[in-house]
Design goal:
Layout (H helix, E strand, L loop, with lengths): L1 E3 L2 E3 L18 H19 L15 H23 L12 H24 L1 H16 L4 H22 L12
Antiparallel strand pairs: 1-2
Helix pairs in contact: 1-2, 3-4, 4-5
């Protein structure tokens, strides 16, 4: 530290990275990269018994193995970027309780969605999920929340149920 006319300045030694004292594994991109590489490895091992096939006649393992490979490459790039940049620590991501409460609320909303979607139906449950995510977790206004919830749930229903002919749960109130 240097003192000059009552002011204190923090002066860092030349050539030293801010995060050197934190260690590489405390950076968010490094942790995310390692986690995603492990997930990609898990997906590859899970699809190891499936035949890959050829490009013209892909087998059942073609898509999962190629997606696992793509995810591993992108995760490795994220890991390298995390090691080379001067990002903050992982602890800084959860520095306040409000951020942690929003993440917990999102997790609770998604778990509730999975538990209720069969009985309440896709359209209603998806609209409620968007409403909760936008209004209480994302802190959007009523107009934006209701508009996006209606358009997103209705649009995704039209896309999947009508255009792609995917069977979606109708709920107990739909015959």
């Amino acid at each position: 530290m240097r003192h000059r006319q009552g002011r204190t300045w923090n002066v860092q030694p030349q050539g030293r990275n801010v995060n050197d004292s934190q260690g590489c594994l405390k950076r968010p991109d490094v942790v995310s990269g390692l986690t995603l590489v492990c997930l990609a490895l898990f997906a590859w091992v899970g699809a190891s018994d499936l035949p890959i096939g050829t490009l013209h006649q892909p087998g059942a393992g073609f898509l999962p193995k190629h997606l696992a490979l793509l995810m591993a490459v992108l995760a490795a790039l994220l890991f390298v970027r995390g090691c080379l940049t001067r990002a903050g620590s992982v602890a800084g991501l959860w520095s306040d309780w409000a951020s942690l409460a929003r993440v917990g609320g999102m997790l609770a909303a998604l778990i509730g969605y999975v538990l209720v979607v069969e009985s309440a139906g896709y359209l209603l449950t998806t609209a409620v999920l968007f409403f909760v995510m936008l209004h209480w977790i994302g802190r959007q206004g009523w107009v934006v929340t209701l508009t996006v919830a209606a358009l997103a749930s209705g649009g995704s229903y039209l896309l999947f149920a009508r255009w792609l002919m995917v069977s979606l749960p109708g709920g107990a109130w739909v015959p």
